[in-house]
Design goal:
It contains 2 helices and 4 strands. By secondary structure, it is α+β, with helices and mostly antiparallel strands.
């Protein structure tokens, strides 16, 4: 099985187009749709919903949003802890002054 360079789907190695580049790399396109979108139209595979790269990029974006949300909540928790510590310190200072 050969993996399409644009869509990421696997098909038989006897179908599609093999593109041999001057640097020795081989690109495989399973059908004319992926071949034209990659070379003729020069489309970004991360922006087309029917490609594997799009699904991968979307999952990464969702994970990044979750990570940022978790990071924001930890920052908020740390800020709340700092406020509580400052209040306790102020109480101790006030208790020492009154004593």
């Amino acid at each position: 099985m050969v993996k399409d360079s644009f869509t990421g789907e696997e098909t038989s190695p006897h179908r599609g187009v093999h593109l041999l580049k001057n640097d020795g790399t081989v690109e495989y396109y399973a059908n004319s749709k992926s071949f034209k979108n990659a070379l003729k139209l020069r489309r970004d595979k991360r922006k087309l919903k029917w490609t594997e790269a799009y699904r991968h990029a979307r999952i990464q974006a969702q994970n990044q949003v979750v990570y940022k949300a978790q990071e924001a909540s930890t920052i908020k928790e740390n800020a709340e802890k700092a406020v509580v510590k400052a209040a306790e310190k102020a109480k101790k200072v006030a208790a020492k002054k009154s004593a």
